[in-house]
Amino acid sequence: TVGTQTDYRDGEAQTDPYSPEYVVPSGSVSELLTLATLTWGRGLPAGLAEVEMIERAREKRAWEATLPSMENAAQIAKRRKMMDDMERKEWAFREQEIEKLQEVRLEVLKKLLRRREENQNELDAKRLDDHWQNHQKAKEEKIKKIQHDCALMLRKLIAKRKNVMGKLERRDIIKEYTDFASQTYAPLSRIGYFPDNHSEHYVVKNVYLSTFAGLCELEASLPDSVTQVKIKAPKPKYTTTKTGYIKRSARLEVELAQVHQ
């Protein structure tokens, strides 16, 4: 099935390469033993740096073969001079390696600083964007309030201009009853009318609904058609037409029944 795995997966079967046992003959030094410190994942498979290290080891063994013997004082002085020169070369090479390593670390540090600066810039931009959005929202709300106050003041000014001279007008009852937004139909609470008051006047109070005997009497007065539901059986569908042919729907129902069986 889909959920089954094999016993030998690629990830479990992949191991480090096998290193067999070896025997070194007496009096000989194998070149491969100089690479015994390299293991799989740490120097193996060999890259450019490992090849350069092998070449330097070969050059050092060739140089050691050219060293003079220590038989007399002149040979000893020459040998010491050659060893001092080789030591200076090794120190110079080591300094170059340290400088390369420092350059690599400096590049990594530069990348980390650049990435941190980019993240900080993104955070600053997001913070500024949020701040700008908040200011825009406050600005829109303030403009909306100003427009609302402006419309309110305009309505007040228009209402005052209708009666500039301050003349007293008589009540027009016909106009009030023709306008459904007038105080007759929709009185305001600020002039002393509260529509929620005295709402208990609209509650239906009936003796038939407040007592059990009234409910029984009300139920007895109902017709039988309300309490006893009569269901008419549906008429069977005719499977044949007036001319005596079987309808297509009936044939399909028979075929479906056969398939179901």
Automatic annotation (TrEMBL):
Taxon lineage: Eukaryota, Metazoa, Chordata, Craniata, Vertebrata
Protein name: Cilia- and flagella-associated protein 91
Family: Belongs to the CFAP91 family.
PANTHER family documented for this protein: CILIA- AND FLAGELLA-ASSOCIATED PROTEIN 91
Organism: Corythaixoides concolor
Keywords: Cell projection, Cytoplasm, Cytoskeleton
Keyword flag Cytoplasm: yes
Keyword Metal-binding (UniProt): no
Stretches assigned to the CFAP91 domain: 4-156
Entry GO terms, CC: axoneme
Residue runs in coiled coils: none
Pfam families documented for this protein: CFAP91 (PF14738)
Subcellular localization: Cytoplasm, Cytoskeleton, Cilium axoneme
